[in-house]
Specification:
Helix content of chain C: over 70%
Largest sheet of chain C: 2 strands, antiparallel
Radius of gyration of chain C: 21 Å
Structural class of chain C: mainly alpha
CATH topology of chain C: ABC transporter involved in vitamin B12 uptake, BtuC
CATH class of chain C: Mainly Alpha
CATH architecture of the largest domain in chain B: 3-Layer(aba) Sandwich
CATH architecture of chain C: Orthogonal Bundle
Number of domains of chain B: 2
Distance between the termini of chain C: 49 Å
Strand content of chain C: under 5%
Number of helices of chain B: 10
Structural class of chain B: alpha/beta
Largest interface: A-C, 50 and 50 residues
CATH class of the largest domain in chain B: Alpha Beta
CATH superfamily of the largest domain in chain B: Response regulator
Strand order of the largest sheet of chain C: 1-2
Oligomer: heterotrimer
Largest sheet of chain B: 7 strands, mixed
Number of strands of chain C: 2
Radius of gyration of chain B: 22 Å
Number of helices of chain C: 15
Shape of chain B: elongated
């Protein structure tokens, strides 16, 4: 128990910070922040960002980065939106449910292609991830702009909106999807053979390869996983915004990296936990929502998140160092 | 530890019960904060709040990301507001969030950029989009001194809905009225940055040696285009016309690199939005109401659209009269 | 000489150079204007700021770091010096440049200390700096442009050497920014190749553990790299104000990606220790020419993005494929020692 606590010190510190933030916000916005309504509201918002952050985390754990994650999400959404709109045809075409099902399948298929594209360059050609994804970000964005000419695509079955707006026993569907994604990601990354190979590749790719693990498959898998997360987030976003456009969620890329690192994943790879990212996402959500409700100038949200990031990582660094010294 | 937690909990609950005074709160949300255009409208909106003695909140995202705007609307709704005037980054994306507002009994209006008709009670527009789009073409032809020749378009973002609307009206009008005008290539994006507009215009001038005119959409685009024309010393052979802020464009208007700047006073637009919200919430008559410094309000036949005025045109002579 | 040539052909710079030539030839065939002196000078002028910043970024990347705060640092320099010029009418260019370098140096030093002393991963330290600095700047300036700067700075920006008029009213010549860029190129090259300091940075980036073992003070070297970069951004900031004749606090959003992209296109390794001034220069040229060439070649805006992304991917893959082939030729096993990081 003590060992577990020590090993996950950073996550407990994050949890404590989250608690403190909730209490502070509760005091600052009495009667409005700590309410079921606001938690439901945050639940609606957090899912898409959290899922993208988990997709980013897996890539960062291998020592890579995925700058194209939001663009793959939007490209997949745009193409599936076109498909859905054409099939639904304003109610004259296919019935709602099969139409939505096909739309979802198309989203996953396009995202899969995006993931394979990134994975191919990283795993099989060996180009560094930041460059591959910088290039593919431009390509995906270019394709999306080319087919939409910059405007948004809408005109889906009404039912499709329910994914992003509906609730089950008062819990938003988006939140339920998020919980399932967290569970799946946790099992895949922290409890499976493939997951272990992710950490190993992140720690030392060459040594991992020489120890007989197919690092190419591991890397390819990670980019595909990341793209699948993008697809899920893309579906939620398309439903929540009732449309798809090339630049939706453009601010999520940097935020997802920040959440991953705040959650304790080392940017050089080899370490990190899914739950750490999840808590970090919650912290960013609470700060962002709280500041919005308080109507504090949005610029201070960026400043606050920057300060939290640097502060928490500096603490982590010094505590780790002390631990190392103590062990000696 | 448990006692402490319980104490904190009780305190929070107590504080929650002390409801705040019931003022009228009107939220005016721009596409993004921190750019000159929306700063100017903030001044007008806040001034109107003071004149009317109501609580006006001017807040928006720091980048023009539709997703952020939706989150802000949802968060503000938690706090409870009476009216929301929004300049949507994308009409479709804010639609579900605006429907939530309506379900909550909030008066929803749009300003600057139109939202979907079903989502708003009033639509406050600075100008008639068609009038602006056509006016830009007329001014371009006037400054080119000929109704034929090559022209190019420099825009803000390729995804900006209102810019695209103006561009479409301009293109259609040019094709119909001035068949001699040829658009050399698709609109070139300047990412709302004067530097990028300058770089792109430099390349355009190189690529199309017969270029006679440039239309700039979004406020930094004409400035950047004018910078390039000025640097090339082509003030006399290339006409630049576009939507720009008068103080930013003054130096370029005066040396002839920018021929006409067209816009409206964004502060008046902010003011008008707040007044309409106030009048509706207090149940007063909107049609014909005289807004101080703006003029009488006129609602169009659709019962929804309120158009502020015709756009103002700045030239080298009159630009110093405007202070925004 | 022959040996040198051979080494160049085998180098990373050569592949960037090759792609650059292909782009240039294709562009010239599509539109001969591309190769005109006036066009080349224009492109170099508008990309001189990118070029100067890339020198700073190169030194940081050589240490194995990265700087995501280019935007914030440039904005801070241009806004502060712009305010000074507006407020007091101060227009001494030399002092302005020194001030710019000092301001950039301060933020750079801050970054460097956070990375070397607080042990923050570079991308996080600089992302944090960026969001904090940009947050304050945007709050303080409200994104308002600073216009009506003293005429001297604008005239300086327009200055050209060997200027002559081409008859249509344009003046053609070598822009002053090109000279400034060249000076920074030489300075960085000299620092990296001819001083102990630069040598140590190269050595450290290649292998921090053994660098420490042979007695290099890696903390101070890292701090210096960020300080140096900050000074470069400061220099670039004043140059930028000269070109634009006004200050837009939001002008640099996303600029860091261009700078990083140019450096890495030029063959520098993100893991540190490998990269050159020449390569970075070629990377900047490639970056600048692609966009210019696409417009000159009358290619629609919507396609430009796809092509730019494609060329980036092609350029970086080219290198790796060449490397793989070499590796296959010399089948030897070498395991790089890697620093145990984080947890």
């Amino acid at each position: 128990m003590k060992e577990h606590f020590k090993r996950n010190m950073h996550q407990y510190r994050l949890l404590a910070l989250l608690g403190i933030l909730l209490i502070v916000m509760g005091f600052l916005v009495p009667g409005k922040f700590l309410t079921v309504r606001n938690f439901r509201n945050m639940g609606f918002q957090m899912a898409e960002f959290g899922i993208l952050a988990i997709g980013m985390s897996a890539v960062i754990m291998t020592g890579g980065i995925n700058l194209s994650i939001v663009n793959s999400a939007m490209l997949a959404s745009i193409i599936s939106s076109f498909v859905m709109r054409a099939m639904y045809d304003g109610g004259n075409g296919m019935a709602e449910l099969p139409c939505i099902a096909i739309g979802i399948v198309v989203t996953f298929a396009v995202a899969l292609l995006c993931g394979l594209f990134n994975g191919f360059f990283v795993a099989y050609i060996g180009v560094i991830p930041i460059l591959v994804t910088l290039g593919s970000q431009t390509v995906f964005d270019g394709v999306a702009l080319n087919i939409t000419r910059g405007s948004s695509v809408s005109g889906f079955p009404k039912l499709f909106q329910q994914i992003g707006m509906g609730t089950f026993l008062g819990i938003p569907y988006t939140m339920l999807v998020y919980l399932v994604v967290i569970l799946v990601a946790y099992l895949l990354i922290e409890r499976s053979y493939w997951g272990i190979s992710i950490y190993m590749v992140g720690g030392n790719e060459k040594a991992t390869r020489f120890s007989g693990i197919n690092t190419r498959k591991t890397l390819m898998g990670v980019y595909v996983f990341s793209a699948m997360m993008a697809a899920v987030a893309g579906i939620l976003m398309t439903s929540r915004y009732n449309s798809a456009r090339a630049d939706y969620g453009s601010s999520y890329t940097m935020q997802a990296i920040a959440a991953t690192v705040l959650g304790g994943t080392s940017i050089t790879g080899g370490s990190g936990h899914v739950l750490g990212t999840v808590i970090a996402v919650a912290i960013i959500q609470v700060v962002s929502s709280g500041f919005n409700i308080l109507k504090i100038n949005r610029n201070f949200t960026d400043i606050a998140i920057g300060l939290i990031l640097i502060g928490m990582l500096a603490i982590k660094h010094f505590v780790d160092k002390e631990k190392m010294l103590a062990r000696k | 530890m448990k006692k402490l937690l319980a104490l904190v909990f009780v305190l929070v609950m107590l504080l929650s019960c002390t409801a705040m005074a019931d003022d009228m709160t009107v939220v005016v949300m721009p596409k993004l904060v921190g750019i000159p255009y929306f700063n100017a409208s903030e001044i007008g909106a806040l001034a109107a709040g003071e004149e009317l003695g109501i609580n006006v909140i001017y807040t928006g995202p720091t980048t023009g990301d539709a997703a952020l705007q939706v989150q802000m609307i949802e968060d503000l709704l938690i706090d409870g507001i009476d009216a929301l005037a929004i300049a949507p980054n994308d009409p479709d994306s804010v639609s579900p969030a605006l429907q939530k507002c309506i379900a909550d009994g909030v008066l929803v209006m749009d300003w600057d950029t139109t939202a979907n008709a079903d989502d708003v009670t009033y639509s406050i527009q600075q100008i008639d989009n068609k009038v602006l789009g056509e006016m830009l073409v007329d001014l371009l032809v006037e400054s080119m001194g000929a109704d034929e020749g090559e022209y190019a378009i420099v825009t803000g973002y390729l995804t900006a809905a209102n810019l695209n609307t103006w561009i479409d009206y301009s293109k259609a009008y040019a094709a119909e009225k001035y068949p001699g005008l040829t658009l050399v290539t698709d609109p070139v994006a300047s990412d709302e940055s004067a530097q990028e507009a300058y770089t792109q215009t430099m390349a355009l001038i190189g690529a199309y040696p017969n270029l006679k005119g440039i239309l700039g959409y979004s406020t930094p685009a004409p400035i950047g285009a004018a910078m390039a024309v000025q640097e090339k010393g082509l003030q006399d052979s290339i006409a630049v016309v576009g939507t720009s802020m008068p103080t930013d464009s003054a130096p370029y208007l005066k040396d002839g690199s920018l021929d006409y700047g067209v816009l409206w006073d964004p502060s008046q637009l902010g003011k008008l939005a707040v007044y309409v919200a106030y009048l509706n919430l207090t149940g007063a008559e909107i049609e014909g109401y005289e807004v101080p410094g703006v003029g009488p309000i006129h609602i169009n036949e659709d019962g929804r659209t309120i158009i502020m005025a015709d756009p103002s045109v700045w030239t080298a002579e009159n630009v110093d009269n405007y202070k925004f | 000489m022959n040996g040198k040539l051979k080494r160049f052909v085998a180098s990373k710079e050569a592949s960037v150079f090759l792609i650059l030539i292909v782009v240039a030839v294709a562009a010239t065939l599509m539109n001969p204007t591309f190769l005109s002196f006036a066009n080349l000078m224009d492109v170099l002028k508008s990309n001189s700021v990118l070029g100067i910043c890339s020198m700073g970024m190169l030194v940081i990347i050589l240490t194995g770091g990265i700087d995501a705060s280019v935007c914030g640092q440039l904005a801070l320099v241009t806004v502060l010096t712009g305010q000074l010029m507006l407020g007091t009418g101060f227009d001494n260019l030399v002092v302005l440049y020194i001030l710019g370098i000092l301001i950039g140096g301060c933020t750079g030093l801050g970054n460097g200390l956070m990375v070397s002393r607080l042990g923050l991963p570079p991308i996080i330290a600089t992302l944090g700096t960026n969001s904090i600095v940009m947050g304050f700047i945007k709050y303080y300036t409200n994104g308002e442009w600073l216009n009506n700067l003293p005429a001297r700075i604008g005239n300086f920006g327009l200055y050209k050497f060997f200027a002559y008029s081409d008859g249509s009213g344009s003046t053609i010549g070598v822009p002053v920014q090109l000279l400034l860029y060249a000076v920074m190129l030489v300075l960085t090259w000299f620092m990296l190749r001819r001083t102990m300091l630069g040598r140590s940075i190269m050595a450290m980036g290649g292998n921090p553990v053994s660098a420490q073992r042979i007695g290099l003070n890696t903390k101070n070297l890292t701090t210096f790299a960020y300080l140096f970069a900050g000074c470069m951004y400061g220099f670039a900031g004043i140059t930028y104000t000269g070109i634009m004749k006004c200050v837009d606090p939001n002008a640099f959003l996303g600029f860091e990606m261009d700078v990083i992209g140019a450096v890495v296109l030029g063959g520098a390794l993100m893991t540190g220790g490998s990269g050159s001034v020449l390569g970075t220069f070629l990377g900047v040229l490639l970056f600048a020419f692609i966009s210019n060439a696409l417009t000159l070649a009358h290619i629609s805006t919507y396609w430009q993005k796809i092509i730019v992304g494609g060329i980036i991917l092609l350029a970086v893959s080219f290198d790796m494929i060449k490397l793989h082939r070499e590796e296959r030729l010399q089948t030897k096993v070498d395991i790089e020692p890697k620093e145990v990081s984080g947890e």
